[in-house]
């Protein structure tokens, strides 16, 4: 409670009738917006003495703003305009309101010795967003769909599910959960069990909330999917020559026959993941990844798990494979065992030959070879591995790899090499290894080719894997290339800028078509001196050209772009580049430049107050400067318009839109003068950090008009009696005055021109005045009883008309209320008032005043 407030309240508890405080019952606002809480007051004095005035705003027991003869005490969150308060306007402005600002506010006005106070409720409303988690459904099975409504306030909300426009009654809505900013989020789910006959189904989630004018929906057109099948297998790869005894094993995880294509296949261990996806003939997809395991002979058996996630699954599929490692000595024993078994098979071969001939064709029809799998590209100096699998072979299979290099040379490797072939391959970088396993009389062969790529040899390479089983041959071919590429960046606006939810700017860059994969990207910002920024997102992906693309993002508070000379810089380093490259973005690169509407110009009426308005929208950050300029009629120079008794600048109402940009309305209020404003021009000029030079809009030359003001009299000062119309403050000069009367036939007839006289004069303010008189006959039986005068002018939507009735020797002004005696103008009054009018252009007598509806 501010100093002395309690004492003042006790002493001045009784409020007199001279102070009136007015507020609306409530105001509604959105989080993040600026809101006005109107509070106006009137005192019995014509002017407010600041020494007797005190204004206090409170929320509960907390004092927000205090203004008295000692000055203004406020905070960045709440403020009032002291100048407006001295004129009876104590409106409170709340900036960037949040849910916590909701409540009952109290406007207290003390004008000694009186006090008045009123309450106003501020209600916050946040509009929800709705999203249905879209997933492929499984036919003839239960499927759960989830709908989320987020960031809404107040808490009450309704979510409704519809299937092809019909309400689903089986949905389940959870309790709304509070967010950190005071808003709420809620989920609703529904179980569906589609059948084979149900096609073209449209699922809708409809949200109703008091902040919405009408319900909002998110919809999902049902697609059907297939659950993946998963298997895991492995093979041992050649070890490094310089590290004898070390072995490398490839564990392969295969997911196939699934739809749609998007799938996640991961290893439970932290290994290197490589992915390939192929489309099957029936429209489904298959995906394989393999995991390299490096070991030494003393390694113990190890279990490796492959986890597959797909939108058709309630929970991931996990397959586990046990990897066993063997030393060179173990392998010698295994090879000896294979030789012994070979002799036994030869002795038994004759007895089973007839059986083989019978089933030979049957087995061979099942003999299948997979595509060649391997990396589409590679880091320089890193070995690459290609592998291929043969299934359902009728007997042990011979494997051959052929590599045709860029220069045309071909290297051939087989798993059954002669001594001469072994000698030829000495020093060759290519190695291969095959592993054969048997199940129910059929063989499966997993083979791998390993080498270190180079640009000179492998910029264009053909790789062939050939299997020979029981005299039959099947092979697969793969075209492969290895090149080094420098990261490519767009020349136009390489740094993309977007808005976050917290008034920050997200900066991102896309680097494309580079190889090898390794790249370093860093962000920094500042004005001359740069400070490192934290990267919020780095993502490297393989593209369709078999090279790599990278996207990197960082986040910067939006207000930093208002600092003079501020820039954000991104720097990247790559093996193919001799030195780092960088790009910068500054405030002038912000895409949220202000957009100005045309200035709304009402009809310019002499002597009346007008408001010029210009809406400025779509800008960020909230750092707008608005200036009004004026050009006098017929002159080129522009002069700034400053707040004064003549010119008023209302507080700009700044609002934040759904796209996080800002909108405000700039206004200029003043009283129009024909003399100074006709032909002049006003200019609204806007500055913003995103602009290299200010924007402006012009009113064009103003056309000021004056609406006639008409007074009516009976003039008995001369020998001839006259009806008098005094017309003033009109512009332009052209004006038409018609006098008429009701003749004997009941129709209006115009008076003879000889009975009418008119006199036009200039006023000092640039308008005109006119005195029009009409002689009327002396009282007799034939004299007219009803007269009419009509005034027509360009500023009028319809003429000003006046009916005057005559009863005996008295004249009356006729209107919708009845008849009122028409004022008579004495000689003294005529001399006094009309001569004064000649000086000022204004009539100050007591004649009747009439004004027609003006043109809009």
Automatic annotation (TrEMBL):
Region Disordered: start-end pairs: 823-856
Presence of the UniProt keyword Transmembrane helix in the record: yes
Entry coiled-coil feature ranges: none
SUPFAM superfamilies the UniProt entry points to: Immunoglobulin (SSF48726)
Entry superkingdom: Eukaryota
Keywords for this protein: Immunoglobulin domain, Membrane, Signal, Transmembrane, Transmembrane helix
Any Pfam family hit: C1-set
Signal peptide: 1-18
Residue ranges crossing the lipid bilayer per the database entry: 335-358
UniProt domain Ig-like: residue ranges: 17-109, 128-221, 228-318, 594-696
Protein name: Ig-like domain-containing protein
Species name: Leptobrachium leishanense (Leishan spiny toad)
């Amino acid at each position: 409670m501010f100093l002395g407030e309690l004492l003042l309240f006790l002493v001045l508890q009784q409020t007199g009738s001279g102070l009136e405080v007015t507020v609306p019952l409530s105001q509604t606002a959105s989080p993040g917006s600026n809101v006005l809480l109107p509070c106006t007051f009137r005192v019995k004095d014509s002017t407010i003495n600041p020494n007797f005035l005190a204004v206090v705003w409170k929320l509960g027991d907390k004092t927000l703003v205090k203004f008295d003869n000692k000055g203004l005490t406020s905070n960045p969150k709440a403020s009032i305009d002291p100048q407006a308060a001295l004129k009876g306007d104590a409106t409170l402005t709340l900036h960037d309101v949040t849910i916590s600002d909701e409540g009952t506010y109290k406007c207290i006005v003390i004008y000694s010795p009186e006090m008045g106070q009123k309450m106003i409720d501020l209600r916050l409303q946040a509009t929800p967003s709705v999203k249905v988690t879209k997933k492929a459904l499984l036919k003839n099975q239960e499927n759960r769909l989830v709908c989320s409504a987020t960031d809404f306030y107040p808490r009450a909300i309704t979510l409704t599910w519809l299937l092809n426009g019909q309400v689903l009654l089986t949905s389940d809505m959870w309790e709304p959960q509070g967010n950190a900013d005071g808003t709420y989020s809620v989920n609703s789910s529904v179980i569906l069990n589609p059948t084979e006959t149900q096609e073209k189904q449209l699922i809708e989630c409809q949200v109703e909330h008091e902040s919405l004018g009408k319900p909002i929906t998110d919809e999902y057109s049902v697609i059907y999917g297939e659950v993946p099948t998963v298997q895991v297998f492995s093979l041992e790869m050649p070890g490094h020559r310089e590290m004898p005894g070390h072995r490398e094993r490839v564990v392969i995880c295969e997911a196939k026959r699934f739809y749609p294509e998007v799938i996640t296949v991961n290893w439970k261990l932290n290994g290197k993941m490589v992915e390939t996806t192929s489309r099957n003939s029936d429209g489904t997809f298959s995906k394989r990844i393999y995991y390299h395991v490096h070991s030494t002979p003393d390694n113990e058996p190890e279990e490796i798990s492959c986890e597959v996630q797909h939108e058709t699954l309630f929970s991931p599929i996990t397959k586990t494979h046990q990897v066993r490692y063997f030393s060179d000595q173990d392998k010698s024993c295994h090879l000896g065992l294979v030789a012994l078994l070979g002799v036994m098979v030869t002795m038994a071969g004759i007895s089973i030959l007839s059986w083989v001939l019978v089933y030979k064709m049957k087995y061979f029809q099942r003999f299948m070879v997979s595509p060649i799998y391997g990396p589409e590209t590679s880091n320089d100096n890193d070995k690459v591995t290609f592998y291929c699998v043969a299934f359902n072979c009728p007997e042990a299979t011979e494997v051959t790899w052929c590599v045709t290099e860029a220069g045309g040379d071909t290297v051939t490797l087989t798993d059954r090499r002669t001594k001469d072939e072994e000698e030829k391959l000495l020093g060759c970088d290519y190695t291969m290894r095959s592993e054969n396993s048997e199940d129910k009389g059929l063989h499966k062969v997993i083979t791998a080719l390993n080498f270190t790529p180079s640009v000179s040899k492998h910029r264009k390479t053909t790789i062939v894997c050939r299997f020979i089983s029981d005299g039959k041959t099947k092979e697969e071919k793969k075209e492969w290339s290895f090149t080094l590429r420098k990261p490519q960046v767009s020349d136009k606006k390489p740094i993309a800028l977007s808005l976050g939810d917290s008034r920050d700017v997200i900066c991102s860059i896309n680097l494309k078509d580079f190889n090898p994969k390794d790249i370093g990207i860093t962000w920094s910002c500042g004005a001359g001196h740069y400070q490192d920024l934290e990267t919020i997102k780095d993502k490297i992906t393989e593209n369709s050209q078999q090279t790599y693309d990278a996207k990197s993002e960082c986040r910067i508070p939006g207000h930093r772009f208002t600092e003079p000379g501020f820039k954000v810089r991104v720097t990247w380093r790559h093996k193919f580049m001799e030195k780092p490259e960088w790009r910068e973005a500054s405030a002038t690169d912000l895409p949220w430049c202000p957009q100005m509407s045309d200035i709304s110009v009402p009809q310019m009426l002499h002597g009346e107050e007008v408001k010029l308005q210009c809406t400025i929208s779509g800008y960020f950050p909230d750092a707008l400067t608005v200036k009004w300029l004026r050009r006098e009629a017929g002159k080129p120079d522009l002069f700034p318009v400053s707040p004064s008794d003549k010119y008023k600048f209302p507080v700009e109402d700044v609002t934040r839109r759904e796209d996080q940009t800002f909108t405000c309305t700039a206004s200029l209020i003043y009283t129009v003068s024909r003399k100074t404003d006709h032909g002049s021009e006003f200019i609204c000029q806007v500055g913003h950090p995103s602009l290299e030079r200010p924007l402006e809009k012009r009113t064009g030359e103003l056309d000021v008009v004056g609406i006639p003001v008409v007074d009516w009299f009976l003039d008995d000062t001369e020998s001839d009696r006259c009806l008098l119309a005094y017309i003033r403050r009109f512009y332009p000069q052209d004006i038409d005055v018609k006098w008429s009367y009701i003749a004997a036939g009941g129709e209006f007839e115009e008076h003879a021109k000889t009975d009418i006289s008119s006199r036009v004069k200039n006023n000092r303010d640039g308008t005109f005045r006119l005195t029009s008189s009409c002689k009327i006959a002396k009282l007799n039986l034939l004299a007219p009883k009803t007269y009419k005068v009509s005034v027509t002018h360009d500023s009028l939507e319809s003429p000003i008309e006046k009916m005057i009735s005559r009863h005996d020797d008295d004249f009356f002004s006729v209107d919708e209320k009845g008849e009122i005696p028409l004022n008579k103008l004495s000689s003294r009054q005529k001399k006094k008032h009309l001569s004064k009018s000649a000086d000022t252009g204004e009539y100050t007598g007591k004649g009747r005043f009439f004004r027609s509806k003006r043109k809009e």
